[in-house]
Write a sequence for this structure.
């Protein structure tokens, strides 16, 4: 969505000097939302039940703007409202490039309404236009604001640049570090993510304590999430978690838990986006609701949904109960999403039809989540397959008609699903298509148990013989003892000294 926000004049002077560290940023990730998942995001959500204003208020910074743009792109009925909210918030920043882009999108929506293009704008917007509310509802592009904001941004950049030069001339590490952070904050506010990342990263060589290192990592992680550079996110999350000050308890208890929760959320998000769903679930489950204060990345509701769905898709039944449903810590997150809590309980109680129906009801809203949307179909499929495996596991045979009824599908579609699970080894069974029965493979438990017993006996016998042999060798004193290699050398040196 974003391109670099270029500043004339002082920027070249600031970046022209020799810096202690350079940061390489993959071009395909620069200022881009969606990245490699763009192909999967061509869809339209028609019937969401989202409270747009409440949702947007849960975020700050670029996280809010990215999410509103994503909703505007994929949901016609919220498009105008989302763009208006994004424009209003954008005016509190120095990101004039984005401000103009959002206005162009809004103008296209209004023009589409005026030309009778019903598909471009929702009925709500059409009704507003018909009632003569166009000018009040859709403010015009304020070019004076753009010009004034650009001048202020340039003046601020030059001031920060001069301050940094003064700090460097005085060789005060702490001041230089803060100067780089201030420049990074300014570039981030202006939408120039590439230069923000460079400034935050350059602060690393001027960190004088573990707390400073963690602060630098947090800043780099934030920008890397916006750039969707997930390998960078994982690298700096691990670096921050390995910092001694974070583990030695030198930070206040509240600050420590807030930082750990933030790092776990960022790590979980990176694992989710790289399709490591089980690892993502464990990271989200380690978060603390009382210390979940990262509106520039995720909201507590996001943690509940991401953690709940990834756990449901990857955890087995005992893990799901122990780490999710009965977890005192994660249960607080689930209180924010009662529908998801009901989904988890239905799945654990083997009420698969109701569970899948509730998931389908949630799907439209989940498809408007910028990070979760590309993974919804995969996660839903994994949850459904895990339900099918769990349903059949206690039986030697199952009636396909009853099974299809339990999973809200037809027998033909169920047979196709079961065929895939049988082929990939998830279910050890055969399908009797004539009688519509799923039959577990005949396993001779008696012979299988006997074979395992013989195998264990042979292993025990071999180990016993090895112990007897070693005991006999030691008793006969025929074992070869090796002296330490450096021992003779030490003796020689000592003899030579004498």
């Amino acid at each position: 969505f974003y391109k670099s926000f270029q500043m004339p004049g002082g920027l070249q002077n600031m970046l022209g000097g020799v810096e202690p560290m350079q940061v390489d940023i993959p071009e395909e990730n620069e200022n881009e939302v969606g990245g490699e998942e763009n192909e999967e995001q061509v869809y339209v959500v028609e019937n969401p039940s989202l409270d747009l204003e409440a949702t947007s208020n849960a975020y700050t910074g670029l996280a809010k703007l990215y999410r509103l743009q994503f909703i505007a792109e994929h949901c016609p009925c919220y498009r105008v409202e989302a763009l208006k909210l994004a424009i209003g918030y954008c005016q509190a920043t120095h990101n004039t490039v984005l401000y103009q882009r959002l206005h162009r999108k809004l103008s296209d929506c209004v023009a589409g309404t005026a030309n009778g293009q019903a598909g471009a704008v929702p009925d709500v917007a059409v009704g507003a236009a018909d009632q003569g509310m166009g000018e009040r509802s859709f403010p015009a592009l304020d070019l004076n604001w753009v010009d004034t904001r650009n001048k202020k941004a340039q003046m601020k950049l030059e001031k920060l640049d001069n301050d940094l030069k003064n700090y460097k001339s005085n060789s005060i590490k702490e001041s230089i570090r803060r100067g780089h952070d201030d420049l990074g904050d300014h570039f981030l506010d202006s939408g120039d993510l590439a230069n923000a990342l460079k400034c935050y990263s350059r602060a690393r060589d001027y960190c004088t304590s573990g707390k400073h290192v963690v602060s630098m990592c947090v800043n780099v992680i934030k920008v890397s999430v916006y750039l969707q550079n997930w390998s960078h996110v994982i690298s700096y999350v691990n670096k921050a978690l390995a910092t001694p000050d974070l583990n030695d308890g030198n930070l206040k208890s509240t600050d420590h838990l807030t930082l750990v929760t933030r790092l776990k959320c960022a790590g979980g998000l990176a694992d989710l986006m790289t399709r490591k769903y089980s690892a993502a679930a464990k990271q989200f489950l380690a978060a603390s609701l009382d210390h979940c204060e990262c509106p520039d990345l995720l909201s507590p509701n996001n943690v509940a949904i991401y953690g709940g769905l990834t756990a449901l898709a990857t955890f087995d039944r005992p893990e799901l109960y122990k780490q999710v449903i009965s977890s005192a810590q994660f249960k607080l997150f689930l209180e924010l999403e009662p529908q998801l809590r009901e989904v988890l309980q239905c799945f654990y109680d083997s009420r698969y039809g109701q569970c899948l129906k509730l998931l389908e009801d949630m799907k439209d809203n989940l498809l408007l989540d910028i990070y979760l949307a590309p993974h919804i179909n995969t996660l839903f499929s994994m949850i459904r397959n895990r339900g099918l495996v769990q349903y059949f596991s206690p039986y030697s045979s199952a009636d396909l008609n009853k099974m299809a009824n339990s999973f809200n599908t037809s027998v033909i579609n169920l047979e196709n699903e079961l065929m895939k699970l049988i082929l990939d080894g998830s279910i050890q069974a055969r399908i009797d298509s004539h009688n519509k029965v799923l039959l577990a493979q005949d396993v001779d438990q008696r012979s299988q148990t006997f074979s395992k017993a013989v195998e264990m006996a042979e292993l025990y016998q071999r180990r016993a013989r090895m112990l007897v042999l070693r005991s006999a060798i030691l008793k006969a004193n025929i074992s070869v003892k090796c002296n330490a290699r450096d021992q003779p050398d030490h003796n020689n040196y000592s003899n030579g000294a004498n």
